[in-house]
Amino acid sequence: MVDHNMRSSRLDLQPLSLAHLQDFHAIMTDAVGLRFSTRKPFLSIEATKSLLEKWIYSPEKPWLDNHAILLRSSGNEGEESRMIGTVGVVRLPGDAFFDSAEIAYGIHSDFWGKGYASEALGMFVGLYWTAGRDGVDVKNSLVASIDPENKASERVVQKAGFRKREKMKDGYVRGGEGGEVSEQVWWVLERP
């Protein structure tokens, strides 16, 4: 089982679990935060739980490696760390990027503009290729699919060392079925 945690001065990364359901639901109902997602905001906690269960590591899906991004408490009495986003491997992209894992990340829009996504992605990339990670099927490159209108997300992957590869016209549907068709750009980070 994946049980690796990471800590910075501001953030903790914890393997995603059902204990994160309430905060994950707040993220998955954030319409602003999901603007460039393939999903619409979730309408029920049951739908959110179903997705969360799919994103949690299991021996049947050894490539899954998703983490909760927690904003560390300031140390004030009664204040706890709070989940503000997710980062990790969500799928294997197939033939287009052989021996790659697709990463995704998202931060609740209340916490945008503070560098948390860049910090969390940098932490995750450092963790991903760390030796001795029993149970994780580690690939030789990470890929990210980004809408070219999402300039903030492009800056996040650039800071982590990803390089722009190819653009796909009509690459995905914003908000899922019935949403706007948009281009997507693949960004790649090779194993060091």
Automatic annotation (TrEMBL):
InterPro entries on file: Acyl_CoA_acyltransferase, GNAT_dom, N-acetyltransferase
Single GO MF annotation: acyltransferase activity, transferring groups other than amino-acyl groups
Domain N-acetyltransferase residue range list: 11-192
Keyword Transferase appears in the UniProt entry: yes
Swiss-Prot/TrEMBL keywords: Acyltransferase, Transferase
PANTHER family: GNAT FAMILY, PUTATIVE (AFU_ORTHOLOGUE AFUA_3G00765)-RELATED-RELATED, N-ACETYLTRANSFERASE DOMAIN-CONTAINING PROTEIN
Protein name, as recorded: Acyl-CoA N-acyltransferase
Organism: Hyaloscypha variabilis (strain UAMH 11265 / GT02V1 / F) (Meliniomyces variabilis)
Classification lineage: Eukaryota, Fungi, Dikarya, Ascomycota, Pezizomycotina
